[in-house]
Amino acid sequence: MRRHKISFSFMIISTAIFFSLIVACFIIASSVNVDDEFNRIKEYSSSSEIFNFAEKCKSHISNKLDLAYFIMGVEGLSTMTAIHSFSAVVLTLLWAFIIPIFGIIFGVSALQQIILIFIEKIRREYEYRNMYITVKILLIVFISLFSLFALIGIITTSIIENSLNSVDSDMKNYLTFLNGNSSHHIFSYLTAYKYFIDGGINEIMKNGFENSNINNPGDLHNNLVGASAIISAVIMPLLFAIILLILPIFLASIISNRDNSSSRFSNWLHNLRIDSKKEYWSNLIKNPWFWIAFIVFVVSIIFPGFIHPYKNQTQIFITIFAALILPLGFIPLIIAYMKIVKIRVFNYNKTMFNQIIIFNIAIIFIQLNYWILFREEMTYPVWVSLTWPFISIFLSLISLVGFTRTKK
C-alpha cells in the first residue's frame, strides 16, 4: 500500500468516520423513545387528523431506526427540528442520511484497495487492457440503464405527485399539518403511505393506494403507482448497487502501479508545470472541463441556493449557507495564483484536478443536502428536485472524467 498512500489514507479515514458514526448512532438511539416522539407529533397540532395519522403510523414502526426513516421521509428539516427531541433529530440525520453517504464512500474505497492488490498482480499488458475495457463498458452500460430508469421514474412520480397535490385528500392534509405548506414531495407521500397502510411498500407495489383507506387519494391508476414504487424502491437501488460494485474496479485500474512503475494517471497528474501568469490564464481559459464544472457549481449555488421561497428562517439559512460555500469552492485556484504572484512553480494538472474535485464535492453536497433535507421547504415539483440534481451531478462528474482524459 506504500505506492497508494493517498487512496489508502482516504480509505482509513473513511473507515474510521463510518464506524464512529455507527457507534454514535446507536449511543444516541438509546436515548430516543418512539412513543414520546409520536406524542410530540400529536402535540404539534391539535388536529384530530394528525392524532389518527400518528397512531396508525406508529403501529407500523417496529424500532427506533425505523422511526428515523419515517421522520426523514415525512418531514422537512425545519419541521423535524420543531417537533422532535434533539436526540431524535440527530438519530434521523445520522441513520437515514449521513451514514448511508459515508457507507458508500467507505465501501467504494475499501473495495478499491482490495481490488488494487489483484490488478497489480496482472503482468501481461493485453490482460490488463481487456479487463479495463470490459469494466469500462459495464460501467457505461449500467450508468445508462440507471439514467433510463431514472427518467422513467421522474416521469411517473411527477404524474403521481401532481395528482396527489391537486386534490384535497386526507394524506395531503396530514402532510400540510406537519410541514405547513400545501404542496408536498412525492417521497413524502410515499413514505407516509408506506407507514400508514397495512403491508407498507409491498402493498403499494402490488395494489397502489387502492387499500389505503384514505379519502380521495386522487385520480390515479394503481398500476402506475405500483410501477413507480417498483422503479424507485427496487430497480434503481439495484442498479445503483451494481454501479457501486463496478466503480471501485474501474478506479483501481486507473491508479494501479503494475511492475513497480508509476501509474499513467500519476504521471499525468504531475505533468505540466507553470510559473507565469500568462501560462496560468492561458491554460485556464482553454480548459473546457474547468468551465463546465465552474458553470454547474455557480448555477448550483444560485439554484436552489438563492432561488427559492423566503417564508421562514430555514429558507433564509439556505441562502446564507450557499453564499458561504461560494468562495470556498475556489481555494485551489486562489492558492495557485498566490504561488504565481510569489514567482513559484506549481503543477497545473494537479491543481486543476483538485479544483474540479472540489467543485464536484460542493455540487454533490449542495444537491443532496438541499433536495433531501429541505425538499419540503423548497416546494418545487419532483421533476425539478430530481432532474436538476441528476443533471448537475452528472455534468460535474463528466467534467472530472473529461479533464483526466486530457493529454498534456
How do you describe this structure in short?
The protein is mostly helical and 408 residues long. It is built from 19 helices and 2 strands. Strands 1-2 form a two-stranded antiparallel sheet.
Describe the secondary-structure layout.
Elements lengths: L4 H25 L4 H11 L3 H11 L5 H11 L2 H7 L2 H34 L5 H41 L4 H10 L6 H11 L3 H8 L14 H34 L8 H6 L3 E2 L2 H9 L2 H15 L10 H16 L2 H11 L4 E2 H26 L1 H4 L3 H23 L4
Antiparallel strand pairs: 1-2
Helix pairs in contact: 1-6, 2-3, 4-6, 4-9, 6-11, 7-11, 7-19, 9-10, 10-11, 14-15, 14-17, 14-19, 16-17, 17-19
Protein name: Motility-associated protein Scm1
Keywords: Membrane, Transmembrane, Transmembrane helix
Describe the structure.
This protein is mostly helical and 408 residues long. It has a domain at 271-408. The chain contains 19 helices and two strands. The protein starts with a helix and ends with a helix.
What attributes characterize this protein structure?
408 residues; mainly alpha; two-stranded antiparallel ribbon; 19 helices; globular
How are helices and strands ordered from N to C?
HHHHHHHHHHHHEHHHHEHHH
Spatially, the strands of the biggest sheet line up as 1-2
Query: pLDDT below 50 for ≥5 consecutive residues: which ranges?
Result: none
Class from helix and strand fractions:
mainly alpha
**Shape, principal axes of CA atoms:** globular
Over all CA atoms, what is the radius of gyration? 24 Å
Report the count of strand segments: 2
**In percent, how much strand structure appears in the residues?**
under 5%
H/I helix tally: 19
Give the end-to-end Cα distance, rounded to a whole number of Å: 28 Å
Average pLDDT metric: 86
* Biggest sheet features: 2 strands, antiparallel
Helix fraction, binned, reads over 70%
Keywords: Membrane, Transmembrane, Transmembrane helix
Protein name: Motility-associated protein Scm1
Transmembrane segments: 6-32, 67-87, 93-119, 131-160, 229-255, 289-310, 316-340, 352-374, 380-403
Organism: Spiroplasma helicoides
